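Notes to self after the call with IL:
- keep both proteins in one doc
- input above output, always
- annotate only the second one for now

Protein 1:
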Amino acid sequence: MRTRSVAICVCVLACVGSGALGNPEARKEDLSGCKLPHGELVIPDRNTPEGEVGFILKFSDGTLNPSPLKAEERPRSAGEVLARIAAEKAGDLVYSSRFNGTFVAVSGRASDLGEKFLYELSGIPLQRPQPVQSKKEQSASGEWTSGAIDGIADGHCYLIEAADGKFALVRVVQKRGRLALIQYVYQPDGTRDFAIPKGAIVVEKTNETEARHVDAAQGKVSISAIEMRDYANAVKSHGENREKIVKHSITLISAKGDDVYSRRMAAIVLGQLRAVDAAGVLAEHVNDDLAMVSLRSTVANSYVCAQSLIDIGIPGARAAMSQMEADAKSELPKGKLADVLVWKDRLENRRNLFTLVVLKVYEEKLARIVLEDKMAASDDPKVKEAYRNAIKAFPDIKAWLPDVKQQTTAPAATGPTR
């Protein structure tokens, strides 16, 4: 059997009453010589921030697991919770800070073996624990919490029957308010025979607000439950903020008006966020408003939108090709010749920018294959012509690639437009 080492998670010591933290000289054993799976960890009350990460100790792998019940589920009793934990194989032991500290065995069976060290139980025939229940915690239906031992004590050892029918010895090193520091040894062969050699007895420091231990097997520092909670909250906040930013940026870039700076910034942000869901909007607004503003002054909605599509990657290139096809199918506007010529210039420039996106994302060899495949797959002569012209424009468009972000004027159209 290989030794298991469980790193102690970071914990903030919750002081109760006068601020005492239980036995001022909490002593623990050096279990490094034990060949049975064993571990040392802080087990939290389920109603603490640490408990949100995991509070059910599973002896077989030394993990602390979260409740298998979903947040919206409301169990009718503690017995129902334990039954669900057992069914989901989530773990074997739960700690509660109520009633001066309580252990709840998921199997319903546990026994207090008195104040001693784990090695003192080595080689001693141990009786199977009897079913136990809390003497203090009762549900609204009158049911006493099964598997619970109230008032667990520092220095005491407990024999716990695991949910899988195997057994573990647990020693309470020190109760720390809503947390408890424990050591345990697990017997995977199903017997109650524990071979635990005597190791050095060391005093656990009690005045630290953090306890970081290095996993001896891997040399890795554990990540605290508090850090994981903060990380989870930060990820959630980032996701919510990102969704808002993408939504507002799409609104800004789609707005009709002369606020070029805001629209430019919105396009840049969408590229930086790799906002795949905004690719279609960016493609739609590439080279926007060129019918009203000269080519040299419309950097905002030509280059930045194209660059953002490049930043988004393959979804951006696909959006560029979809918009290229839509442009090719668009109807020639009715009106003055000058308006028609401007319209043609605008579509030519947009097609060149879409081609630029495809070239930058796929690189020339693959870009050519992609555009040729798109041309072969289309039945529309206008679309085929657009892709054919895009491929012909490769030599000229490649010249824009190195400094696309730094350009201050829009590129000239390649080839005749009138």
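Protein 2 (the one to annotate):
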Amino acid sequence: MQPIFVVDDEKMITSLLDRALSGAGFTVEVFHDAERALDAIPNRKPFLVLLDLHLPGMNGLEALERLRTLSPETEVLMISGHGTIDVAVEAMKAGATDFLSKPVQLPEVISRVSRVYETRKLRTEVAQLRDKRRSDFFAGLHRGESPAMAQLYRTCDQIAQFPDIIALITGASGTGKEMVAQYLHYQSPFKGGPVVAINCAAIPHELIEAELFGYAPGAFTDARAEGKEGKIEAALGGTLFLDEIGELPPSAQVKLLRFLQDRSFTPIGESMPRHIDCNIIAATNRDPEKMVAAGEFREDLYYRINVVRLHLPSLAERQEDIMSFAEIFLAQFRRAMGRPFEGFDESAWRKLLHHSWPGNLRELRNVIERACLLSAGPMLTASDLLISAGEVAAETGAGLVFPRQPMSLDKAMAIYARQVLEALEGNKSEAARRLGISRNRLKRILAEN
């Protein structure tokens, strides 16, 4: 355990604190002046310093300033006598964690120190978990073999050197937009922070502002009594990933634009703005210029979020990646299922390379997983790759199967819409885009039939 430094010129106080904290299981080192304590910090690396304000030579405020430079991660509890509370408050503004008043109450000291220790322990565990996630991400990352993806990742490496990234990722559903967003995060100065993702299409319009910006207690009917932290605030020091940003309602677009301009926002029901530093990465599977032209997306917000544009080509546009990702997915499922598949035979490769892959990498992964579940092996063949007519129809319009008896046009539309929706794994926004209708119109077609 890292030690606690107790720095006070009153030997009776240091003796009491030493006995009490040692009895609580902490390692304690006592100093009676700031200079010696500061000299010992680089080697001993205390997690906490109990620092008296009034010391011989260098006083507590001067020592605090030096300590913040010398060891920013060390917590400081200031000890102040009567009449020095204002000075203690100033010390907290300068970076102290808390302060204790003399005469010190030992149960209170142990309680405060234990709280600091548990908070620090939790922070360390979170940091270790995030480091592991970053390592796991890069261990499993496959960039593909195509020149287009190589260029995209070179651009990511270039912009990730700078803090406060703003980027827009475009590409069809299933091309790997979230993976690119994670790559940017883990390469950026904010890599130690959280990745906070929100799917703008999955949240009802009336709730999206509360999800993004949070709200104060009692801000509106049915609001939580304790209020709610928004996704933007949760992304402090990390990355905010706004998936399907084109689905944001106009009112939320206005507030998001204001946040992008000055990195400050005001939770619903509050009056004081809050400032947040984080990466902001948006993604959409629709054409943003067409959305702007149609009046569905604010032009000023588009220009603000489109600082760096990263476009992911469809899988059909990068055939080199079909083969490499198919082999990677096969290796993953071989390990997960414990089955000794050796690879794909020639007929399987022909089928993989001639399919248009409207669902892109997500569809390819699904086809390989299904083949691994059903194949007798050891080689996967064309017959193992069950690519349904509905999946082909989502891209080509061919291969639809309807009952032989006559039916209404509305019924035929519903059948086709369901096949497209199934091919796209239930993604209503992408299905509506492929069908050339609004999302609400798609819902009505499915509901009426």
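Annotation: The CA atoms of residues 340 and 378 lie 6 Å apart. The first strand starts at residue 4 and ends at 7.
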